[in-house]
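User: structure tokens for AraC family transcriptional regulator, please.
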Amino acid sequence: MGYAEVRFAHTAELALPTGGTQLLVNLDADALSSSPLRGPVRRTGGAAVHGPYTEPALIDPAQQRAVVWVAFRPAGAHPFLTAPVSAVRDELAGLDELWGTDGAVLRERLLEAMAVGGPRAGLRELEAALLARARRPLEPDPAVRLAAALLDRGTPVAEVADRLGWTARRLARRCTDQLGLAPKRYARLRRFQRLLGRVNAGPGAPDWAALAADCGYHDQAHLIHEFRALAGITPTAYAPRSPLERNHVPLDG
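Assistant: Done. Predicted tokens:
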């Protein structure tokens, strides 16, 4: 959970898929939007849930001028949704659609709290709203969390199922329900995130062949193919906003 207030010089940027789910509240304007590279623009009011994306999307940096967000840990969004997390996969879903009246008034509640007590008061109000909406135990299913951790480390899907004593079908059902993604898709996105974490880890230009081997790709050609599919750009064109914001890539023009 966090709050940021900032201005950017660029007018568009790529948001890269992480496999995670976020709750976003735009305090600067009552609007949010996200545009996949293929498909229509998705627009909502100023409070929305950004489901687990499986492809890059174009976003407007102006919508990040003053924003409160919650980046849910794996399976962490599940208690706050009445439907499986997969229902918001590849979606920007308005909080008014998901929570009804509670979602429709959340942005105003945060603005009112921050006007009196500053950003910390706004974060406390958001925390209270989440606790009030919880429909399941707040602690994620430990088996699904273990599955996510194993997949994040590159453990093969079949081995994850064996470790849990589950069939592949049960693993797929539980991951889709609580993570929002089938295990193979989740593992693919997390491998991509491991790669991005390594790209800016050392001095000099990245050694893509070595990174391919270290991150679990068959070869450099496989890495390039996956990079283009998940980032919409080539590896050499990748220039994130900062090393700590590796999933935001400013675009020129």
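User: Anything notable?

Assistant: Helices lie at 95-99, 101-133, 142-152, 157-164, 168-178, 183-199, 208-215, 220-231.
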